[in-house]
Amino acid sequence: MDQYQGKTAVILGGTSGIGLATAKMLVERGARVLVTGRSQAGLESTRAELGESALVVSSDAGSLKDIDALAERAKDAFGALDLLFLNAGAAHFAPFEQTTEAVYDEMFDVNTKGSFFTVQKLAPLINRGGAVVFTTAISNAKGMPMLAAAGATKAATRSFVRTFAAELLPQGIRVNAVSPGPIDTPNWGKAFPDKDVAAQLTGQLSDANPMKRLGASEEVAKAVLFLAFDATYTTGAEIPVDGGQSQL
Amino acid sequence: MTRYEGKKVVIIGGTSGIGLTTAKMLVEGGARVLVTGRSQAGLDSTQQELGQNGIAVSSDARSLTDIDALAARVMAEFASFDLLFVNAGFSMFAPLGNVDEASFDEMINLNAKGPFFAVQKLSPLISRGGSVVLTTSTANVKGMPMVAAYGGAKAALRSFARTFAAELLPAGIRVNAVSPGPTETPIIGKAFSDKAMADHLTGEMRQANPMKRFGTPEEVAKAVLFLAFDATFTTGFELPVDGGWSQL
Q1: At residue B127, what are phi and psi to the nearest 5 degrees?
Q2: Helices (H) and strands (E) in chain A — how many of each?
Q3: Which residues of B125-140 are buried (b: 16+ CB within 10 A; e: fewer)?
Q4: What pLDDT, on the 0 to 100 scale, is given for residue A1?
Q5: pLDDT tens per residue across span B68-117
Q6: Residue B236 and residue A248: Cβ atoms within 8 Å?
Q7: Distance between CA atoms of A241 and A150, rounded to whole angstroms?
Q8: Share of chain B above pLDDT 90, in %
Q9: How far is Cα B126 from Cα B134, in angstroms, rounded to an integer?
Q10: Is B150 an annotated catalytic residue?
Q11: Which chain A positions have a beta carbon within 8 Å of B226's beta carbon?
Q12: How large is the ipTM?
């Protein structure tokens, strides 16, 4: 398969879950990919998994300094880009009464401010006909307990998608989003180190979902690639990959 | 290409534009496709174009008698099938003051009542894991002059997508919609016999669209096939293929 031969992609948050699954599909079909992450272990395992067609870069998605450095790195490596996928995200589960300022700020810094400035700095590298895809979340459209701040950060990015789509249209760049519902990713284990708690929560999420299951990272990745390369008359839109939860 | 090998598809309104293009992509990918239409000339040319993996059937999408006959025919040809694409639709353009009861009924019957009963009669034949895709329209979410009844009917259809998705979920069938903006199809020529009027209107629609162009039937067809076969964790959703019109 060489469907994406000659294409270049930058994936913020590409060392696990949805980002890694997207990177793998791209590399398998001939693209060159730069992915970012923070944990040394994640960076190393991703390097091993993706092989030579991928650059794996340590970068904090909430740091403007790191974003500047990333833009330089992407320019050196690729010259120009076809896809920028903003998938880095922080989600802390807490009732809003117990959400501290530090946790609130961390989520807005990574999810909202980081993604804003990443597009600002990297969009100039994107080719005419290229695309930006954001990962939003179902919590942007549904009231979900314990996700007040996380949901609001994603609502802000949903809004960026529309405005960026309008501003980048003259350059021939489309901007869209995928909105995942509950997805089977390592994030659950990270958010809930206690295995029983994690299992109980993912069980509840499955039960609450119309399809009575969690989605797979690959199902989200397919939507990302559809938006990036096939949806040439669609911009400013958000595709839910949520088992119907936002619609039913 | 054998991407759709073994798949069986029914397309209501498949002898021109978006429906015909979707049928062609499916046949090229190895599927068997039954399409419906009304004009004998359209049915003949479609049968020739699709070849032996296509079946062009004369059927009026507004007629419950025809829908019953269609279900019997599909049962005889396919026994069960994988995708029902309900694409038949048409808009008359008239200011509110000029819409008489007959033309109002025509819009609602073709664009809402026909699709309702088509899904009612045909969904029992859809295999688990299969799906329904409905063609809605940007007119369902935007205030557009001269298409009040059509926009209302398409809004009804948009609503059906959500309710059908909920009702068909236990049968393992997903229901989604594509919402085309202005698309290069013969439908505009049909709505305006006066060519100067048609050219004037299409020029205005192009200018009003964020991408400053019409979409192609291929762009909509790709979205239909994505929803039908790849979007396995998405149901009840409407995907705009409208140059960003509904979002920007």
Answers
A1: -70, 150
A2: 9, 7
A3: bbbeebbbbbbbbbbb
A4: 63
A5: 999 999 999 999 999 999 999 988 889 999 999 999 999 999 999 999 99
A6: yes
A7: 18
A8: 88
A9: 15
A10: yes
A11: 222-223, 226, 230-231
A12: 0.91
